[in-house]
Amino acid sequence: MSEPTTGTTEVPRDRAILRPWSEAAIETVGWDGHLVWMVSGALANSSTMTVGRCYIDEGGANPRHYHPNCDEVLHLIQGKLRHTAGDDVVEMNPGDTISIPAGVIHNATNIGDEEAIMVISFSSADRHTIGE
């Protein structure tokens, strides 16, 4: 489970900031996949958002968790997911997007036959994650 991001630095507000894919921050997690961060306060390229990719191995899942300080938007690029959010359960296919309000417990399970790849974004540059 990811700990809250710390060390947020001041971000220039008068210019665009390019982060090449080769400089993305890879986070190893204690579940079947990994996270890659491209935008956040800790990376010093946004003071308002966090953006990354989430990879879940075939047959894997991330644990149920929530974000107390931000909404999350998850856009599925590859694979097939069963996503739970509160009491709701939906199946997601490539191109589908789900919006999860702050505080809603959720998780994704890869029910497809390949690695699932999602773009994930958060409404805070310092997202917090709490496991159930």
Describe the structure in your own words.
By secondary structure, the chain is mainly β. It has one domain (23-131): Jelly Rolls, CATH 2.60.120.10. Helices cover 0% and strands 42% of the residues. A six-stranded antiparallel β-sheet has the order 1-2-3-10-5-8, with no helix packed on it. A three-stranded antiparallel β-sheet has the order 7-6-9, with no helix packed on it. The chain has a two-stranded antiparallel sheet with strand order 4-11. β1 (25-28) and β2 (33-39) form a beta hairpin. It is globular and about 40 Å long.
Cα shape: globular
* Number of discrete helical segments: 0
Low-confidence stretches: 1-8
End-to-end gap: 10 Å
**Any idea of the CATH class?**
Mainly Beta
Mean pLDDT across all amino acids: 91
What's the arrangement of secondary structure elements?
Elements lengths: L24 E4 L4 E7 L10 E7 L8 E2 L5 E7 L2 E5 L2 E5 L4 E4 L5 E5 L5 E7 L7 E2 L1
Antiparallel strand pairs: 1-2, 2-3, 3-10, 4-11, 5-8, 5-10, 6-7, 6-9
For the structure shown, list the relevant keywords.
132 residues; mainly beta; disordered N terminus
In summary, what is this structure?
The protein is mainly beta and 132 residues long. The chain has strands at residues 25-28, 33-39, 50-56, 65-66, 72-78, 81-85, 88-92, 97-100, 106-110, 116-122, 130-131.
